[in-house]
Amino acid sequence: MFGCLVAGRLVQAVAQQVAQDKFVFDLPDYENINHVVVFMLGTIPFPEGMGGSVYFCFPDQSGMAVWQLLGFVTNEKPSAIFKISGLKSGKGSQHPFGAMNIPQTPSVAQIGISVELLEHLAQQTPVASAAVSSVDSFTQFTQKMLDSFYNFASSFAVTQAQMTPNPSEAFIPANVVLKWYENFQRRLAQNPFFWKT
Q1: Statement: residue 37 has pLDDT above 90
Q2: pTM of the entire predicted model
Q3: How far is CA 161 from each of CA 158, 173, 182, rounded to the nearest angstrom?
Q4: Which intervals hold domain Hikeshi-like C-terminal (predicted)?
Q5: Beta-carbon-side half-sphere exposure of residue 146 (alpha carbons within 13 Å)
């Protein structure tokens, strides 16, 4: 019913069923994992009105299981990417796996999926740092580069009265740089790949 994927590793398509409505994937060497993808295989849908809460479990210093809610998957949202790199030192949250005796190994974490009512899923609050940014890294880089260039160029701005004539230097009015900056931002917001055309 579920699959789990970590970059650079084989897809896990067979979850360990630990209860009628609970499934677990082992994540060996979890300290080196940044993101995990959880998805439905498409073979068996959730029953009507049901979905799956997705949890991340890792052993704390004493070897006890720490569970954190990442988010959910449903028939309408059959896959999700979660950032787990910042969760490895966080506190646990309330979870449905508490009464189960799932073995913990020091370097192995787990992804747990609990089948629950959609109404219950809507009331849960995932760990904020598990959400993957909807803005891709290229767009973030481009925005930071634009800001840096504009701030750098603006730091050299002088008024006409402060200008010393120098025939070997060209001057660009600050309002031209500002107009370019605003146009580039607008185009980037409309289509991050506009520069490819």
Answers
A1: yes
A2: 0.62
A3: 8, 13, 26
A4: 136-196
A5: 19
- Total residues found in the chain within this entry: 197
Burial 125-147 (b: 16+ CB within 10 A, else e): ebbeebeeeeeeeeeeebbeebe
The three-state (H, E, C) secondary structure of 111-166, written as one string: EEEEEEEHHHHHHCCCCHHHECCCCCHHHHHHHHHHHHHHHHHHCCCCCHHHCCCC
Judge contact between 73 and 79, C-beta under 8 A. yes
- Say which amino acid occupies 158: V
Cα 82 to the center of its chain, rounded Å: 5
Decide if 30 contacts 76 (C-beta within 8 A): no
Q: 47-105: per-residue pLDDT in tens?
A: 999 999 999 988 877 777 888 899 999 999 999 998 888 776 655 555 666 555 555 56
Determine the Cα–Cα distance for residues 65 and 105; give it in Å rounded to an integer.
10
Domain over 1-121 is classified CATH 2.60.40 = no
Instruction: Kindly give, in sequence order, each residue whose CB lies less than 8 Å from that of residue 169, ignoring residues fewer than 6 positions away.
Output: none
Residues near 188 by beta carbon (within 8 Å), at least 6 away in sequence: 139, 142, 143, 146, 194
CA-CA distance, 54 to 126, in Å (whole number)?
A: 9
